[in-house]
Amino acid sequence: xxxxxxxxxxxxxxxxxxxxxxxxxxxxxxxxxxxxxxxxxxxxxxxxxxxxxxxxxxxxxxxx
Length: 64
Prior knowledge:
alpha+beta, 2 helices
């Protein structure tokens, strides 16, 4: 997951970084892993950049 490399950035800004994953998510999903990873990294990077205090949290859920 992309958050690991971003966690130190959040820590440097005194932000709490957390990740919550639904345990029901299948171990294999269809999609372009590289593009999905880049989207998540971009979203989290922006969240960390523009959050002054508090927390950046990524919640990954699964719905059929």
